[in-house]
Amino acid sequence: MTHGRTRPSSDSFDLIALVVAADVPMPTVGLEPEHYVVLKLARQPISVAEIAAHSDLPVGVVRILLDDLRAAGCVQVKAPMSVAKMPNTRVLRAVINGLRAL
Amino acid sequence: MDEIPYAIKILIAGGFGAGKTTMVGSVSEIEPLRTEEVITAESVGIDDLAGVEEKTTTTVAMDFGRITLNDGLVLYLFGTPGQDRFWFMWDELSLGAVGAVVLADTRRLADCFPSIDYFEQRGTPFIVAVNCFDGAKEYKPEDVRIALDLDDHVPVLLCDARRRESSKDVLINLVEYVLQRFSGELENTSEAMA
């Protein structure tokens, strides 16, 4: 399914990078069944970790499948917010408010 | 891509059986999920596999949960893999994390030393939450602070990881602490520049 690859071509698929299927018709050639599993899971924004858990595939494999899907223009990926690197008090306050409202 | 929310993460660390997955489960809006990373011995570093020449694969499992905070912000909680030889996984997990909760079990307080050392060295903000198991000896937070030799600024609180409200409080305390630390740093910077 990964054609022997063990790493994606880029490093951008953090465990909590959020993925959503692009609004394009599903390609009918060149993809493995697992690609379609990933695409179906990504109808709503979903993290790389969740895709791995729901598809029962190792995270490393999911990263490679996502790499293919992104190259084919089938998914959009949003990198997570790095709070540690860029202290963002507005975000931290939003987190506190969100938790209090639970 | 405005429709995709931002994701952030908080780590839940502590020794084996300290209640990490319990805490993730008590506040998560989804049943805790498990993700597995298959790794080869090459990337495992110095551990029991030293001397074993052939490539060995190991599976590291991580439990995690999700909390949707608002339309644009999703919080993921990751229970850190317990075994010391999976430290390299922690590097990936702690990258960009808001901070960490170190769960302490007073029956095995020493079990959380490795987590504390790790976050101190890495500069990841953390708080210590003492999980009060039934029948566990009642400790005062100050006793735990002394036993763990924690800096004065590190918050220590008691919790019951099984209870949603209690786990929520722990997370709120962590983020307030992070906010306070960042504000402190910003003040120090502006003082230094004045």
What keywords describe this structure?
heterodimer, A: 102 residues, B: 194 residues, alpha/beta, 7 strands
Explain how this protein is built.
By secondary structure, chain A is mostly helical. Helices cover 41% and strands 10% of the residues of chain A. Chain A has helices spanning 33-41, 48-55, 59-71, 89-100, and strands at 18-21, 46-47, 75-78. A 3-stranded antiparallel sheet of chain A has the order 2-1-3. The longest helix of chain A is centred in the middle third of the chain and has 13 residues, at 59-71. The radius of gyration of chain A is 15 Å and the shape is elongated. The relative contact order of chain A is 0.22. The model of chain A has no long low-confidence stretch (mean pLDDT 88). Chain B has 194 residues and is α/β, with parallel strands linked by helices. Helices cover 33% and strands 28% of the residues of chain B. Chain B contains 5 helices and 7 strands, in the order E-H-E-E-E-H-E-H-E-H-E-H. Chain B has a 7-stranded mixed sheet with strand order 2-3-4-1-5-6-7, sandwiched between helices. In chain B, strand 3 and strand 4 (73-79) form a beta hairpin. In chain B, helix 1 packs across helix 5 (164-193). The longest helix of chain B is centred in the C-terminal third of the chain and has 30 residues, at 164-193. The radius of gyration of chain B is 18 Å and the shape is globular. The N and C termini of chain B lie far apart (40 Å). In chain B, 40% of the residues are buried. The model of chain B is unreliable at 46-52 (pLDDT under 50). At the A-B interface, helix 2 and helix 4 of A face strand 1, strand 2, strand 3, strand 4 and helix 2 of B.
